[in-house]
């Protein structure tokens, strides 16, 4: 009797990897969100630094020395871009038109125009005084502080030739100078008009003090930054001798 040997059972092999479902990418990944926030923060910080470095404001600046009492005109001021930070409110921005207002104190050339230096429109009147060109400094200009003297000059038609010198207007602000000749044919006989601001009630006294005599204009050195606007020095009655000013310029 033959016997059948059972066949050997093959051992089971290793199991294969279990397939997993591929997940779609998550757009709310924390690393992605953090990266976006980092980029936005860098942009905002950079923009703030740039804007802070260029935080300038346009304000008015004087084009030249202007004495107290000057009635501001467009040519007296120029716009300037400056960085003032917290002090910006103390100066007049270019969005405000100061033409026609009066300086309550002197302002130097290039100085920013403070709000506190402005007064409302002046009640003074503008008086035009005829002056021979040789009796006024060549550099006489608007905004300067001057004294005006009356002197005896028969050539100018004066009847009083006693030699007295009288102060007609003291500490007046020049508002305009017109009629000056700039050519080679201009001579000392050319008459210019020097417009000064004086209180209306002083006009008769000023004209009486002139008395048909020639006028000499004396410019005070620079502008007195400590002087505030006010009426010109009262006129001296005609005939009262005073210290003579320097002689007329050539």
From TrEMBL:
List residues of the SAF domain: 57-119
Q: Which residues cross the membrane?
A: 30-50
What InterPro entries does its record include? SAF (IPR013974)
Coiled-coil-forming residues are none
Residues covered by region (Disordered):
1-21, 226-250
Which intervals carry biased composition (Low complexity)? 226-241
Mind listing the UniProt keywords for this protein, alphabetically? Cell projection, Cilium, Flagellum, Membrane, Transmembrane, Transmembrane helix
The name of this protein is Chaperone for flagella basal body P-ring formation
């Amino acid at each position: 009797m033959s016997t059948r040997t059972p066949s050997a059972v093959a051992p089971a092999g290793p199991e294969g990897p279990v397939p997993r479902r591929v997940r779609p990418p998550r757009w709310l990944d924390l690393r992605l969100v953090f990266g976006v926030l980092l980029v936005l923060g860098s942009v905002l910080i950079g923009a703030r630094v740039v804007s802070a470095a260029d935080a300038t404001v346009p304000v008015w600046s004087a084009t030249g020395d202007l004495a107290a009492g000057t009635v501001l005109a467009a040519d007296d001021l120029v716009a300037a871009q400056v960085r003032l930070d917290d002090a910006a409110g103390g100066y007049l921005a270019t969005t405000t038109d100061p033409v026609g207002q009066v300086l309550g104190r002197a302002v130097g050339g290039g100085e920013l125009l403070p709000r506190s230096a402005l007064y409302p429109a002046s009640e003074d009147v503008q008086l035009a005084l005829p002056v021979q060109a040789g009796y006024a400094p060549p550099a006489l200009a608007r905004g300067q502080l001057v004294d005006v003297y009356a002197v005896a000059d028969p050539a100018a038609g004066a009847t009083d030739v006693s030699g007295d010198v009288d102060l007609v207007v003291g500490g007046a602000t020049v508002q305009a100078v017109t009629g000056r000749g700039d050519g080679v044919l201009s001579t000392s006989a050319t008459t210019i008009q020097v417009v000064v601001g004086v209180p209306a009630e002083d006009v008769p006294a000023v004209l009486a003090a002139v008395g048909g005599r020639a006028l000499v204009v004396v410019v005070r050195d620079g502008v007195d930054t400590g002087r505030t606007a006010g009426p010109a020095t009262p006129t001296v009655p005609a005939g009262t001798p005073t210290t003579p000013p320097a002689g007329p310029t050539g």
